Amino acid sequence: MHDGQLAVDEEIAAELIARDLPSFAGPAVVAVPGAGTVNAIFRVGDEVAARFPLAPASAEELSREASGLAAFAAASPVPAPVPLGIGAGAERYPSAWSLQSWLPGDVADPFGSADSEAFAEDLGALILALRAVPVGARVFDGRGRGGSTQDHDEWIAHCIAQSAGLVDVTGVSRAWAELREVPQAGEHVMSHRDLTPLNLLVSHGRLTGVLDGGDFGPADRSLDLVCAWHLLSEGPRRRLREVVGASDAEWRRGAAWALQQAMGLVWYYEASNPVMAELGRSTASRVLSDQDVLG
Question: Distance between CA atoms of 175 and 181, rounded to whole angstroms?
Fold first, then answer.
């Protein structure tokens, strides 16, 4: 999927676990198929997940992620993985890697629970629980989404240029021109920062778990609202807004972040990761057709 992507298989994963975190060695190490774009995931027995970054990461970076993951798990109203350890790289796999607790469940998709108001209420309860954690002295770290929407103008222009024939690029251009002007709707709050389908576990239309909480930290209060367009149809989307109590500016700015994220998926993963490309297309379509968002 990425230039210079690291390769890791079950043999290498088992070898590194035995070398660096031997208390977890012994159970079978099995690759977990999926559409993830950041880590290769392996299941270690019944209770442990090993995460091997696809791009080199330092032990310091993964230590920060583990700290965020632990804080997120403590705040989340539904189960979330907890960190178990960090390993070093080797010649065959030159990156730090990590172990977390395994969380059972089915990964969400853009359509499977889209019509569930109960699911929308679960997402709203999650967002409110995270916002209830005091920001304190922490500040937005400047990485990715969650700061100024207008800082992403160049990226959106690039994505639009790459996406002709894949989405309604004229509609996207008009929508971004409108949504980029929506002002921030309040102070930064504690946020998961990537509430996409692949990071949510579901069962019978209800939220049962949340993955990838390692970036838990302050960001634009609208950022976690991206889940509304990634995951929900019109009625449940409005129910999520009611639960969160989002103002017009907060809601529309959430749509801006969803569109920004979607446009990065549409073209980049068109050939290498069809699941992610389809997520980008469906999210962009939901934003463009949302009468509560665009004038």
Answer: 10
pTM here is 0.94
The Cα 155–Cα 172 span in angstroms is: 13
Superfamily of domain 10-101: Phosphorylase Kinase; domain 1 (3.30.200.20)
**Cα separation of 34 and 292, whole Å?**
33
Give domain 106-288's CATH number out of 3.30.70.20, 3.90.1200.10, 3.40.50.300, 3.10.180.10.
3.90.1200.10
pLDDT, tens digit only, all 295 positions of the chain: 677 889 999 999 999 999 999 999 999 999 998 777 889 999 999 999 999 999 999 999 999 999 999 999 999 999 999 999 999 988 889 999 999 999 988 999 999 999 999 999 999 999 999 999 999 999 999 999 999 999 999 999 999 999 999 999 999 999 999 999 999 999 999 999 999 999 999 998 899 999 999 999 999 999 999 999 999 999 999 999 999 999 999 999 999 999 999 999 999 999 999 999 999 999 999 999 999 999 7
- CATH 3.90.1200.10 residue spans of the chain: 106-288
